[in-house]
Amino acid sequence: MKTFYVILANSLAASLTNNLVWFAVTFWVYLETKSVVATSIMAGVYTGTIAITGFFLGSLVDRYKKKTAMIVSSVGSLGLYVLSFFIYIATPRQVFTDPSSPILWAFIILSLLGAIAGNIRSIALSTLVTFLIPEDGRDKANGLVGTTNGVSFLVASIFSGLIIGFLGIFWMLVAALGLTLLVLVHLWTVSIPEKGVVHTEDHTKRIDIRGTIQALNAMPGLFALIFFNTFNNFLGGVFMSLMDAYGLSLVSVQTWGVLWGFLSLGFIIGGLVVAKKGLGKRPLRTLFLSNITMWVLCVFFTIHESIVLLTVGLFLYLCLIPVVEAAEQTIMQKLIPPERQGRVFGFAQSIEQAASPLTAFMIGPIAEYIFIPFMTTGAGVDLIGNWFGTGKDRGLALLFTVTGLIGLLVTVIAMKSSAYKTLSRNYQKQTAEELIDQ
C-alpha cells in the first residue's frame, strides 16, 4: 500500500498539471475568440485523440514496465508543452483572437496533446491496482483513484480560472512546464516492485485488437458494458463541449474557475465514499443506478437560469462520476486476466471516448444554428420562453435538458436488457468460484 500511495501522489501531481492545461486553454480560447464552435471543436480534438490513441497506449502499458510507461507519459507531456510555449511567445497576440488561425490551432493541438499524453498514466494506474492490491480491496483502491482525480480537478479548476483571469496564458505554461519536470524527477526516484512484464504470450509486441476482443468475448456482457458507457460519453460530449460557454454566460472566468474548484469536491467526496464503503456486492447495479440519478440531474440543473441550481446539480452529478468509473474498473479487473488488462483498459478508453468527439464536432453547430436561434428568435420563445427563459444561454440550457431525457431513457432500457443480466450473473459466478477456491 505504501508504494501505491506514493504512485498515487505522483499521478495526482501529473493529473493536476494536465487538467490545468486543458481547463486553462479552453477558458483562454473562449475568452479570446468568443466562439462556441471553437470550444466544441477543441473538445472534439481532445476526446478524438484519446479515442484514437487508447489502443496504442494500452498496448504500451502491457509491453513495458508500468514505471517506464509513466516516465514516457511525463516526457511526452513535457516536450509538447515546450513546443506550445515557444509557439505562444513567438506569435503576436492578435493572431490568437481569430478562431480560424492555423497558428492558434497548432498551439491548441500541441497543448491538448501534452495533456492527453497523461492518459498513459491512467491506464497504467488501473493495472497497478490489480498488481499491488488484493482483489477484495480493489473497489476501495479505485475509489482512492477517483478521489485523486477529484483533487486534481478541484485544484486545476481553481487555479486555471485565476491564472487566466489575473496572470494570463504565459504564466500557465510556465507553471505546467515546472510541475511536469518535478513530476518526472520524482517518478524517477520511485521504486515499483516489478520483476518483469506480466504477459504470457508475445502479442504485446503489437496492438493486438483481435486478442483483446477475444478476451472481452470470453466474458459475455463486457462488450455491452463498454458500449453502454460509449453511448453515455456520446451524450456527455454535449456537456464537455458547451458547459464552459454556458457557465461563462452566467459568471466571470475567475468565478467560474473557483466554482469548478468547489464543484470538484464532488469527485473527492464520491471517491472517498467508494474508498470507505466500497461498491457493494453488485457493482454493476450500482453503476446503473448512479447513471439514472446523473441523467435525472441533467434534466433539471439548467431548467431555470440560476447559477445556484447549476452548481447544486453539477455537484451531485460529479459525486457520482467516481462511483461509475470505479464500478467499471472493478468489474474489468475481476473478469479480465492481468496480462490483458492494459490493452482492455486502452481498448475500452478508445471505444468509449470515440463517441465524445462526434458529439463535440456536431454539437457546436447544432447549438449555434438550431437551439440558440430557437430560444432567441424562433418558436421556442413563444412555446416555453415565458417560463424557461429566452436568449443564447437558454438555448444551451434546453440542449442540456433534452440530452438528460435521452440519457435517462437509454439507461433504463439498458438496465432491463439481457446483456445486463448476463454480465451480472457472470460477475456473481466469478465471485462464488473464488470463495470456493479459498
Question: What's this model, at a glance?
Answer:
The protein is mainly alpha-helical.
Helix content: over 70%
* Helical run tally: 18
Q: Main beta sheet, described?
A: none
Q: What fold name goes in the CATH topology slot of the largest domain? A: Growth Hormone, Chain: A
Q: Report how far the terminal alpha carbons are from each other.
A: 23 Å
General shape: globular
Return the CATH architecture of the largest domain: Up-down Bundle
Whole-number tally of structural domains: 2
Estimate what percentage of residues fall within beta strands.
Answer: under 5%
> Using only CA atoms, what is the Rg?
22 Å
So what's the CATH class of the largest domain?
Mainly Alpha
Q: Are there runs of 5+ residues with pLDDT below 50, and where?
A: 198-205
Could you describe the 3D structure shown?
There is one protein chain. The chain has 2 domains: 1-189, MFS general substrate transporter like domains (Growth Hormone, Chain: A, Up-down Bundle); 212-437, MFS general substrate transporter like domains (Growth Hormone, Chain: A). The protein has helices spanning 2-33, 36-63, 66-89, 102-116, 119-132, 138-167, 169-189, 209-217, 222-248, 253-263, 265-277, 283-300, 307-335, 341-376, 380-383, 385-388, 392-415, 418-437. Helix content is 82%, strand content 0%. It has 438 residues and is an all-alpha fold. The chain contains 18 helices and no strands.
What layout of secondary structure does this protein have?
Elements: H1 2-33, H2 36-63, H3 66-89, H4 102-116, H5 119-132, H6 138-167, H7 169-189, H8 209-217, H9 222-248, H10 253-263, H11 265-277, H12 283-300, H13 307-335, H14 341-376, H15 380-383, H16 385-388, H17 392-415, H18 418-437
Helix pairs in contact: 1-2, 1-4, 1-5, 1-6, 1-7, 2-4, 2-5, 2-9, 2-14, 3-4, 3-5, 3-7, 5-6, 5-14, 6-7, 6-10, 6-11, 6-13, 9-14, 9-17, 11-13, 12-13, 12-17, 14-17
